[in-house]
Amino acid sequence: MNAAVRKTAPPAAPSKTAAATKAARVAKPPAPLKAGAAAKVAKPPKGALKASGPVVRADGKAVLKPAARASKAPVLPEVEALPLPVETVVDAVRPAYWDEACADLMKRDRILRKMIPTYGPAHLISRGDPFITLARSVVGQQISVKAAQTVWERLAAMCPRLTPAQMLKAGHENLATCGLSRRKAEYIVDLAEHFKAGRVHVDSWTEMDDEAVIAELTQIRGIGRWTAEMFLMFNLMRPNVLPLDDVGLINAISANYFSGEPVTRSEAREVAANWEPWRTVATWYMWRSLDPLPVTY
What we know:
Elements: H1 16-27, H2 37-42, E1 51-56, E2 62-66, H3 98-108, H4 110-115, H5 130-139, H6 145-158, H7 164-176, H8 182-197, H9 210-217, H10 225-234, H11 247-257, H12 265-273, H13 279-290
């Protein structure tokens, strides 16, 4: 007869003593892990997803549902940081081209058509002093907006007139005590020397084209193209500056025109081609879409 259908006697019921012994064996806690073993077991593998909480399956078993991966933080510009927060600037002047630029941009760009009215009468303003504009931009390089403002306030306390002569008199060692790195303190002193010795053509900048001003400014230690472009926008108020090295601008173009997808410089330039000759104005509104607080130098 086939073993699969052979009849067998039912197994005898286990005795109470045997059942108690088995229950005790099941209830016995597992042996403690050796030192360091718990950490090894608990540590998830590299790149693993974190669990967000238990989920009960159809078979009644609880499993952990993986959480979404955290998005990477945006990378700051390689050399400089974003502009410093706005302050009340006495006798601030609205750029003569601002209203015309806004009207033109709203006609040709669907994103700006909705964005510009959102921020009302706010507009780009200039501090007016070339040395202060450049010095503030050097202070803001590679550090957060808040930290840059703190350092600038300390500098203003040490050198209330904020002139090249005061900065030179203080010297880079004293300037460094305000929170500047030694290199940035040297950059500020070098900038002050250029202004004091007349090695920069301040009076001619308004007549020079954008690239000529950039070429002259970038000869000064600590001033790169981004800093020079901020100077063109915030001091000379040039209407058609496109700072492609600015992380805020790139992130704003990504968010507003590419649904948050990464954007190359070439793609950003293509979007901005529709903004000419008002790329400064469009850039200013792109910044506002990320941070409504206006900025100035």
